[in-house]
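Next up, sample data:
>
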Amino acid sequence: MLLGCLVLIGWAAAMASMLSAAQLPPSSSGRATVAFPPDWPRESILSATLNAGARPIRDTWLPGVTQVSLDDLGSVERLKALGAWLVLPPVPFEGLGLGGCSWMTPDADAAPPQIAKLRAGPL
């Protein structure tokens, strides 16, 4: 029991240290993954994102975690001031960023797929 508690405490400390080191610097721009408190309603997350000067891209499957575009310098600091726990680089692959039922990237939504029409031929 004691060993299990020590392992859990050590793991939590290592994770906290790694997440703290992985945060984006204040002058960052581009895409980012932002973690808000998991009990925040979607409206509060959207409001904080927009008030910080960031543009929402999509939700992730984790509660309170969303992907944004940091269009203004200083958006990272404003997100933290408005309640964000972490502002991290974008997720390493799109599977973590599921905002629905698709593994498609946001760029894939830009142009609809070309669909070839089948022609009936002689039977």
The chain has three helices and four strands. Residues 99-106 have pLDDT under 50 and may be disordered. Strands lie at 30-35, 54-59, 65-70, 86-88.
